Amino acid sequence: MNRLIDQYIRNEQESARAGKVEELAARFATRASKHDREGSFPFDNFADLKEAGYLKLTVPRQFGGDEISLYELVLLQERLAYGDGSTALAVGWHVGHILHLRTTGKWPQDLWADLCRSVAEDGTMINTFASEAATGSPSRGGRPETTAIAVDGGWRITGRKTFSTLSPILDRFVVSAYIPDEDCTSDFLIMRTEGVTVVETWDSLGMRATGSHDVALDGVFAGTDMRLSGKGADDGSGWLLHIPACYTGIALAARDFALEFARSYKPNYMNAPIASLPSIQQLIGEMEVELRTARSLLYSAADRWDREPESRPSLKPDLGLTKYVAVNNAIRVVDLAMRIVGGTSLSRELPLERYYRDVRAGLHNPPMDNAVLQTLASNALNEDGGAKS
């Protein structure tokens, strides 16, 4: 295991899982360009993920899952994104949510058990749709315009959600809605029935195959037992590390493409490939600094989250920092890779231009850069004491 991507594999079990995911990633890489150009949802990839058991990786063992750790999830998500960033980011929301629900106990036990068994046996997937055009990202604290009105036996829910990743394939999902009678917001588990419409709006610069369309709800019924309290243990949102793992995976793919290009490309005025040039070696060195720094922080944060469950709430600033560094460094890595390859990197026949577009999407995944910086500043200012003379 002398490849950089293998650096954080710790044991034979992780190596075996990584090998299986690498096979999936290689298969997805052959389809990525087509789905990217069409903006089509990769149903074929998700059929392969289901068959491989990927969808149940974070499900508890008692329900038929593998119950992998956050560290292992990061390891596999990074490798999956090496082949196709869109597929990795999309499935990351599912496996990440399952991990989050597993560690927080937010759902009623009967609903949780039903979901887990369905994931393990049938390949069911889940995601939460909270973003709206008028309120923006839910992390900003805006009140949803989607409403839940009490009726006999449950609720009628009406509204429209944006950035609804996985919407083409889900048969159930969670939505946030405002309850006027109670002047509060709550989450509801929605089954995909009449009144649920996927509006195909997703036509983005990057991550074009995530199926992040709008979802419109027109008086959709949710039973009383489908209201989710949202109460549970505070896990510091460690599961969101699936996001930076995706972008470091893309950066690794760009880095490896650039290295192979530098080793093999020899202009007719040179006696050796461009990898021999000091200027190219400088760019490669800069790539290594950015990528190795990001991955060191990523795996360290995941490992600490796994080992210190009692400290998870206090890890939130460091988890946010991990995402901030990983995404911004990944953007820099892809930019450097394109400088090494030169103008050819702009060709749509090569994957670099897709990596360049996809990796920038990380800036718009939570937590946002300014929120991370504000959290870090607040923590610094609220430290006990000051400099001792």
Automatic annotation (TrEMBL):
Residues 245-362 form the Acyl-CoA dehydrogenase C-terminal domain. Residues 130-220 form the Acyl-CoA oxidase/dehydrogenase middle domain. This is Alkylation response protein AidB-like acyl-CoA dehydrogenase. GO terms for molecular function: acyl-CoA dehydrogenase activity; flavin adenine dinucleotide binding. Pfam families: Acyl-CoA_dh_2, Acyl-CoA_dh_M, Acyl-CoA_dh_N. SUPFAM superfamilies: Acyl-CoA dehydrogenase C-terminal domain-like, Acyl-CoA dehydrogenase NM domain-like. Residues 12-98 form the Acyl-CoA dehydrogenase/oxidase N-terminal domain. PANTHER family: ACYL-COA DEHYDROGENASE, ACYL-COA DEHYDROGENASE YDBM-RELATED. The keyword Transmembrane helix does not apply.
